[in-house]
Design a protein that fits this description.
The protein is an all-alpha fold. The chain is built from six helices and no strands. The longest helix has 30 residues.
């Protein structure tokens, strides 16, 4: 149950961070005088991801599912997620620099635009790789804190523990 909750929480944070990054990109394109189609595209996808994050957050209320509801290919440790985010951001930054370099000579506005776009890229990669890894790594701790702080959830879990039958084997219900 802790794993399922950690996976949904990590996915919700990844969607929310990516939504913020895309909405920031829409604002950046608007400020830099880019095409209205790009602004609308970034904004629509950002709002859609924000709605997905809100829906996932709503699913976190109550008792999580017992059986694993999703497989995860996310890094299992926060340090691995940060490393992957930094690696991808560096590769994309190095790969994009030759394309963006001529724009940097057009003035301070274009240079600041590049820096802002790269910061949004860092935010997106951090939220996509480091945040899910963090919530996976600390799923049990977060779930235990939630049990302590939510008396209704604790009552439901205590009632469930009385008639617990592991659907996948013979594991004990475990400590609350």
């Amino acid at each position: 149950m802790a794993w399922n909750r950690g996976q949904f929480l990590g996915l919700a944070v990844a969607c929310l961070g990516t939504a913020v990054s895309l909405l920031g990109a829409a604002l950046l394109v608007l400020v830099l005088g880019g095409s209205p189609g790009a602004v609308i595209s970034f904004a629509v996808v950002g709002v859609a991801l924000f709605c997905v994050a809100a829906g996932l957050r709503a699913r976190l209320q109550g008792v999580p599912k017992v059986r694993p509801v999703m497989a995860s290919r996310a890094p299992g440790k926060f340090s691995s997620g940060v490393g992957l985010a930094v690696f991808l951001s560096a590769i994309l930054g190095v790969g994009l620099f030759p394309v963006v370099n001529p724009l940097l000579h057009e003035g301070a506005g274009q240079a600041l635009g590049f820096v802002a776009a790269y910061a949004l890229l860092l935010l997106a990669t951090g939220c996509l790789f480091a945040a899910p890894a963090y919530f996976s790594e600390h799923a049990r701790e977060h779930f235990r804190r939630r049990i302590v702080s939510d008396p209704e959830l604790r009552r439901e879990l205590e009632a469930m523990s009385l008639s617990w039958d592991d659907p996948q084997g013979n594991k004990q219900f475990g400590p609350l």
